[in-house]
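RECORD TYPE: inverse folding
INPUT: C-alpha cells
STRUCTURE:
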C-alpha cells in the first residue's frame, strides 16, 4: 500500500510540473544498458573512417534543462533514473513441516534502484580523438518475492541484489577508444563483462530475473561479471563488415563478486581476490532488412573460465560425493556457450514501432554448472495501437534445465536426510517462468508496466506448488 501511495504521489507531482513533448520518443532503457545499445547498432550505410566518439544515450526525461544541453554540447552526458519493481503472489505456497517449508509464505515485495550515469566525450572536452569514459553508480534497496514461495533461481524483481545494500555502489568505470569510424573499439577498466557479451537492450523490457538483465544461465557460475558487478577487464571489438562484429576480452575472475564481503561498495580495486580469468568470444550478424525497417541481431558466443570449480556429482575418487562424503572433484576450467537472436518481424506506423521476436539458448559445462542449459523466447509488440505509439506489450518464456549431476547428488543427499545445496527442499530438475506485461508510456520520462508472472516448478522442484504473481514496474528517467 505504501509503495502504491509513493508512486501515485510522485506521478501526480510530475504531472503538475512537466509537460510531455509533442514529439516524445519512447526510451524504456534503464541506466546501464548503454554498452548493449552500442553493440547492437551496425555501422551506417556510408560510414566514414574518421575517428570519433559514438553518440551517447539520451533518453527522454522529466527534466531537460539548458544546463544539461550545455553539458552535452561539451561532451558531458549526465543521466539520473529510478526503477521500482513490485511483485506479490496471488497463490499460496507449498506447506510442510520441515524448516524450509515452514518459512514459505504468501506475500509481496518491492525492490528498487536509483542510478547515475556519467559519460564524458574527451574529444569534445579536450581534443582526444575517439576517447570516452563511462561510469555508472547505483543504490539498491528492498527484496524479491520469489524466495517467499521457495524459489532461489529466478528473481521476481530482477533489480534486486548485487548492489551491496549501501547508499552508493560503483557498477563500472572504464575508458573506451573508438577508431576508424567504429570499425575498431578498445575498452579497459572496471567493466561488467555481460553488459557487452550475451547482451541485448531488449531483455529489460521484462521484469523477471530469468530474462532481465540477461538470461540467467549466462551468469550461472557467479564468475561472469554481470551488472551491477564488475571486475578489471579489457575488451576489443572489430567490425570487418558493416553488419558483422567480432569481439573478445580478458576479465580477471574475482571471488565473491556478487557478495557484500568483497564488493559491498564496488570500490575495492586491489584485486587480492583474483582467482582466475574469463575469456569470452562473440560474433554477430546485424542485418537491416527492408531498407532498415526490420533490424535483426544474430549472435553466437562462448566463454572459458580458468579458475578451478567443483564437480556437481563426482568426488575425488570418481564416486558420488553425496554418497561417499568425500571432497568433490575439482576441474581446472569450465565453459559456457550461447546463441541469441532478435528480429523485428513487422513495422507499424513509425520506425520505432513493430513486432519483434527474441529467442536463444545458453548451454553450460554440464559437470560444473547448476543450470545445464536455458532456452528462451519472447515477443515485443511496440506501438500496435496508433493512439498509444509508445506503449509495448510483451510476453516471455524461459525454460531452465538443471544439470544431471546436481539432480542426482540432491537425490542422494535428501535420501539420507542431509541438507541439499542451492536452498533445495526437493530434487531440482527443471523450471519454467512465463511473463506477460504491458508498458504504459505515461508521460515524458515515466513508464508504468503492469506485470503477470507464472512460475512452474519454482526452484526447479516438482514438489513446490506453481506460483502466480502480479506486479508493477515503474521506470522514471529524472534527467
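DESIGNED SEQUENCE:
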Amino acid at each position: 500500500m505504501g509503495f502504491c501511495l509513493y508512486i501515485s504521489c510522485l506521478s501526480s507531482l510530475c504531472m503538475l510540473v512537466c509537460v510531455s513533448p509533442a514529439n516524445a520518443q519512447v526510451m524504456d532503457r534503464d541506466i546501464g544498458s548503454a554498452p548493449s545499445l552500442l553493440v547492437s547498432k551496425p555501422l551506417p550505410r556510408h560510414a566514414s573512417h574518421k575517428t570519433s566518439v559514438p553518440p551517447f544515450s539520451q533518453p527522454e526525461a522529466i527534466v531537460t534543462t539548458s544546463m544539461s544541453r550545455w553539458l552535452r554540447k561539451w561532451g558531458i552526458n549526465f543521466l539520473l533514473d529510478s526503477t521500482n519493481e513490485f511483485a506479490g503472489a496471488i497463490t499460496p505456497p507449498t506447506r510442510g513441516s520441515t524448516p524450509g517449508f515452514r518459512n514459505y509464505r504468501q506475500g509481496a515485495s518491492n525492490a528498487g534502484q536509483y542510478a547515475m550515469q556519467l559519460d564524458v566525450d574527451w574529444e569534445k572536452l579536450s581534443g582526444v580523438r575517439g576517447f570516452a569514459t563511462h561510469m555508472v553508480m547505483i543504490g539498491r534497496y528492498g527484496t524479491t518475492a520469489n524466495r517467499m514461495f521457495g524459489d532461489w533461481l529466478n528473481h521476481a524483481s530482477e533489480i534486486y541484489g548485487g548492489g551491496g545494500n549501501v547508499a552508493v555502489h560503483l557498477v563500472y568505470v572504464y575508458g573506451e577508444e573508438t577508431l576508424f569510424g567504429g570499425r575498431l573499439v578498445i575498452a579497459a577498466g572496471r567493466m561488467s563483462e555481460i553488459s557487452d557479451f550475451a547482451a541485448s537492450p531488449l531483455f529489460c523490457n521484462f521484469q523477471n530475473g530469468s530474462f532481465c538483465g540477461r538470461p540467467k544461465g549466462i551468469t550461472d557460475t557467479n564468475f561472469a561479471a554481470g551488472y551491477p558487478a564488475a571486475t578489471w577487464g579489457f575488451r576489443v571489438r572489430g567490425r570487418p563488415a558493416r553488419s558483422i562484429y567480432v569481439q573478445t576480452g580478458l576479465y580477471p575472475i574475482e571471488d565473491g563478486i556478487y557478495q557484500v564481503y568483497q564488493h559491498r561498495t564496488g570500490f575495492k580495486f586491489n584485486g587480492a581476490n583474483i582467482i582466475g580469468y574469463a575469456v569470452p568470444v562473440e560474433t554477430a550478424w546485424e542485418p537491416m532488412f527492408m531498407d532498415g525497417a526490420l533490424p535483426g541481431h544474430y549472435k553466437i558466443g562462448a566463454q572459458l573460465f580458468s579458475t578451478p570449480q567443483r564437480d556437481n556429482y563426482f568426488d575425488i575418487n570418481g564416486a558420488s560425493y553425496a554418497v561417499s562424503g568425500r571432497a568433490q572433484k575439482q576441474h581446472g576450467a569450465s565453459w559456457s556457450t550461447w546463441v541469441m537472436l532478435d528480429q523485428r518481424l513487422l513495422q507499424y506506423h513509425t520506425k520505432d514501432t513493430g513486432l519483434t521476436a527474441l529467442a536463444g539458448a545458453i548451454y553450460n559445462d554440464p559437470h560444473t554448472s547448476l543450470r545445464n542449459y536455458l532456452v528462451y523466447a519472447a515477443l515485443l509488440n511496440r506501438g500496435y495501437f496508433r493512439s498509444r505509439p509508445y506503449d509495448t506489450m510483451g510476453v516471455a518464456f524461459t525454460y531452465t534445465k538443471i544439470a544431471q549431476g546436481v539432480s542426482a547428488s540432491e537425490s542422494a543427499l535428501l535420501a539420507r536426510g542431509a541438507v541439499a545445496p542451492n536452498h533445495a527442499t526437493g530434487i531440482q530438475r527443471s523450471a519454467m517462468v512465463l511473463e506477460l506485461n504491458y508498458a504504459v508510456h505515461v508521460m515524458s520520462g515515466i513508464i508504468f508496466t503492469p506485470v503477470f508472472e507464472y512460475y512452474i516448478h519454482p526452484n526447479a522442484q516438482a514438489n513446490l506448488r506453481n506460483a502466480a504473481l502480479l506486479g508493477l514496474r515503474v521506470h522514471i528517467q529524472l534527467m
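NOTES: Confidence is low (pLDDT under 50) at residues 1-27.
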